Amino acid sequence: MKITKICCIGAGYVGGPTMAVIAKKNPNIKVTIVDINEARIAAWNDEDVSNLPIYEPGLAEIVKETRGKNLFFTTAIDEAIKESEMIFISVNTPTKTYGKGKGMAADLKYVELCARNIAEVATTDKIVVEKSTLPVRTAQAIKSILHNTGSDVNFSILSNPEFLAEGTAIEDLLNPDRVLIGGESEDAIESLANVYGSWVPQERILRTNVWSSELSKLTANAFLAQRISSINAISELCEHTEANVNEVAKAIGMDSRIGSKFLNASIGFGGSCFQKDILNLVYIARSYGLTEVADYWEQVIILNDHQKRRFSDNLISTLYNTVSGKKIAMLGWAFKKDTNDTRESAAIYVADHLLNEQANIAVYDPKVNEQKVLNDLNYLNTRSEDENKDLVTSFNDPYETTKDAHAVAIMTEWDEFKTYDWQKVYDQMKKPAFIFDGRNILDKSEMEAIGFEYSSIGK
Ligand code: UDX
Ligand code: ADP
User: Fold this and answer.
1) What residue owns the CA closest to ligand 1's atom 10?
2) Which UniProt keywords apply (predicted)?
3) Phi/psi-derived region of residue 103, left when phi > 0, alpha when psi is between -120 and 50, beta in every other case
4) pTM (2 decimals)?
């Protein structure tokens, strides 16, 4: 099928950047991104592209170039579905917070609603592409909903998992290691391969069956997360010995069989994918009775939780076993640099733990505002919204944030943190002044020369 119009349901971190790049590289295809969230669509349509709902280096420029030409943002979902030959489902699939599979399985209600919406309004044949991270065999569910609508519209289902990482989304989309398309219908697969083919070399476009494609996404994320948990496990051992985790990571990373990427010891991985996808993998394995397989992958998550807890425990015990009434400055709230996404960010859990000990938390993140910080904490439901509001303040300036603080905790590896006037920070802090560098981005000897009590991960 020749594709002239594409619709993407879900204007989020995946849908937004992916469609922007597809539109840029396919000027003859009309790309419409729809969402039920009116405020989000309004922000995507904001005259001033610095107000886009998602921060991603390079994204604003592409939106500016294509918006109103062949890239459109709207809440008119039905119209966009009707006119398009290809529909991407790019809605959120959070971990279930209720019922069977609570805390493990992916909640597919948004995906199901989309499938029903498509089934209801489609009057011509459609290729439906699942873009959200979905548990294996979701395509089957989508297919069954679409095919049981009674109309004679023909639907082909494809799985096209996203491998972009936030913070480098545009770069990852422009130069992907590979694009994966899983499906039954060769014609549908080739239609999508042609869309990517306008900028991705054909040999990088892999075609598989739907189930392999779905499982590859979970597997890729599980392998990446496993590396982080592995190096984080070693970081704890380093702290008990004279070893330095950076040196260990460098030494093993130079083994070409291992490779150097994803070996940065940290406060623990966050983001919308790793935890969710591994829990999903564990859930699927358990549902097939594969206990050892499930336990094996679950340990990656257990270690990650341990790493976050260890960081806050260490902070508390270093501050003489009490942080009650003390100001703790947290630099960074996003789950990694160059994004305003905070989903599953380690900062949330570390803050929550410190708040249980009645600390006062001051937050500074270049791209995250106070309301988002409070929403993240309120979502955990550990204490009342009023209490969170009393105990947590966010600032627009790092020096305000750290003024009179007992300790600074570095939660995100934002580049700007490295260039601060740390002498000034030190002068304004309570003494002794502590730094807990959760990302190993500052120089230990430099910090100690200023007078800081410095500790980092695995050193
Ligand atoms: C990830 C996958 O990389 C991507 O392919 C998939 O499509 C979605 O999930 P993302 O969550 O955006 O992408 O970010 P990623 O760069 O993978 O980082 C995930 C977390 O791991 C972050 O919290 C990051 O800070 C942490 N991390 C990463 C480490 O702690 N150490 C590392 O060495 C690398
Ligand atoms: P991701 O990181 O997977 O892109 P986001 O949460 O950033 O996730 O984006 C998902 C988007 O999907 C949200 O903006 C949400 O409003 C939208 N969405 C969810 N369900 C529907 C639906 N049935 N129809 C249209 N949009 C939806």
Assistant:
1) 165
2) NAD, Oxidoreductase
3) left
4) 0.94
